Amino acid sequence: xQKTDKQVPVTVLTGFLGAGKTTLLNxxxxxxxxxxYAVIVNEFGxxxxxxxxxxxxxxxxxxxxxxxxxxxxxxxLIRILSGLMKRADKLDAIIVETTGLADPAPVAQTFFVDxxxxxxxxxxxxxxxxxxVHLSSQLTDHHEAEEQIAFADVVLLNKIxxxxxxxLEVVKQRIKKINxxxxxxxxxxxxxxxxxxxxxxxFSLKRVLEVEPDFLTSDHDHEHDDDVTSLSFVSDTxxxxxxxxxxxxxxxxxxxxxxxRTKGILDFTGESDRYVFQGVHMLMDASPMGKxxxxxxxxxxxxFIGRNLETMNLKEGFENCKSA
Amino acid sequence: xxADLNNFPQLNKTKFENRGKELRLGIPVINAVTVGDSxxxxxxxxxxRIFSPGKSSEPIKAHKGIVLCxxxxxxxxxxxGDDGRFLRISLDGxxxxxxxxxxxxxxxxxxxxxxxxxxxxxIVYLWMPNKKEPKLLEHDSTIGGVAFDSKGRKLAVSRYGxxxxxxxxxxxxxxxxxxxxKGSHNKVIFSPxxxxxxxxxxxxQLHFWRLKDKIDSAMSGYGxxxxxxxxxxxxKYLATSGANDAVCWPFDGDGPVGREPICIPYVGKQxxxxxxxxxxxxxxxxxxxxxxxxxxxxxKANNTIIIRSFTEFEVSAIAVTxxxxxxxxGDMGGNILWxxxxxxxxx
Lengths: 324, 347
Known about the structure:
The complex is a heterodimer. By secondary structure, chain A is α/β, with parallel strands linked by helices. Helices cover 29% and strands 27% of the residues of chain A. Chain A has 2 domains: 8-203, Rossmann fold (3-Layer(aba) Sandwich); 230-319, CobW-like, C-terminal domain (Hypothetical Protein Yjia, Chain: A,domain 2), CATH 3.30.1220.10. In chain A, helix 5 (135-141) packs across helix 6. The radius of gyration of chain A is 20 Å and the shape is globular. Chain A starts with 7 loop residues before the first strand and ends in a 5-residue tail after the last helix. In chain B, strand 24 (272-278) and strand 25 (283-288) form a beta hairpin. Chain B has a 6-stranded antiparallel sheet, with no helix packed on it. Chain B is mainly beta. Classes of the chains: A alpha/beta, B mainly beta. Chain A binds chain B through residues 1-3, 53-56, 58, 60, 62-66, 73, 75-76, 78-80, 83-84, 86-89, 114-116, and chain B through 26-28, 30, 43-45, 65-66, 68, 82, 103-105, 107, 121-122, 141-142, 160, 182-184, 201-203, 224-225, 289, 312-314, 332-334.
């Protein structure tokens, strides 16, 4: 491996057909002068893309034989990203545009699972472009729309000029209920400062520490059993590391298909460091992240985004991890 | 305090480096193939260079981006690139575009007895000798690798879920059968005696099929993906990358099932990134992730010599000329060593 090379950031653009993904993409490409981008598009792209380096992809999802039952990856991304990393000229960034009906999980999991991809590139953020007019009905009709919101680090709520204030608020509440972490940005024609969608480093553990989730006052009523929702837990009592690992490992192994994303900052008894983790389905990235800041209360915070969360006894499980 | 000298990479230049030609191009070396007494090298800027004894090598501007794949075709080479072009290039640098797929990459190329193949996405494009239009062989998923058997009558196409084995009958009609194994299969090769088919997988393992009875098995235990593997000599061993040792599986007799591989260790716990058989010997050239390259006899323990010292960049290409007079080593940092193998040969 080329030890001096930095990992190239990869931004994933998701969103339903017509939401404005290609508009955002072309804005990024025309406004970031002097930067070298590679753009990976699917063959059903909405309109032309103005860039030197455009690669056609097939969105080929395949299963890994690694014992992880929900572990799917994007085979075409592995092939294309590995190829791009052999180029003599170094890229500033890579943008992956997915089809409207794509599930973002295999894209994210590719960066956890494939060593070559993980060594040379890093998932910077998942940016979901949503149509303020149609998102509510899309969320009801298509589970892919829920997943795209659930995985988003940024939701670009586009076409807000076409809805009234009340309608906009309803859509925003709906998004927050699915995903308390995602930053919602209101736009028309995807007019957003590009530093709010690029170079976010949203999948780094450091960022988990920085982003305060935007929790709703909890009302967990919803219309369908398979709606994506979020649940969060806080404890001021330190946790027992062994108990937590037992519970959490088993939970992801048995319920990982329904748990889309997890994030947490943990305070373990007898440990001076903060433990930070984040996960996609059954895959996790976790590490101690330095001492607790002085003068700040130590506490553990845990957030789940997924389906059927209320059936998993999460509160009870978390409570049982507290040190006696 | 005492330093562990065994863990230090070789710091002095080898005799091969001292008498050979070293190029520091700074452009990643992607692949190298032998054509007679010459070796063609493909680079990460789309150029190709031809190395021949006594001649200088000038860059040939073949592709716009990367030379993704390369194969020998008689006294020419075939290349595929991320510019969608499929090319035939002569050793003196004349380029002939066989086909152009636009924004779709040409991922794999191969040839045998005048038949020429490239793949793009899930389709094999097969040009039979003297035919202008290719035959299209379609598959359900993107193609991971492609290989002819020694006679050119079978074409193995690896993909997600196994290998499609195409056979040509005597009326030149191609029919297919499936060799199934769950997972995504990448590079595929036939053993030189055509008895076995071996693939590398997305997981850190290889898979093989014995073609006469379709017995198949995994070869696993690797710490990394197995990107480079080759049969040695007359199919007695399969040498593989992907571990700290060069792992050599026995393919004589009834094959590797139930047998242990021979593991050739190297100092410093580097990853083996490239293996190439040494012609006419039961020996392999092994390239490591720190750029060092060794020549090892498989059945003789401790019979290893160093060919190239470390460069810090992983070895991505090793090739030996057909007459076994010269060898070429390339790495991802764009360093090349082109040297005579025997002391009296000229570069």
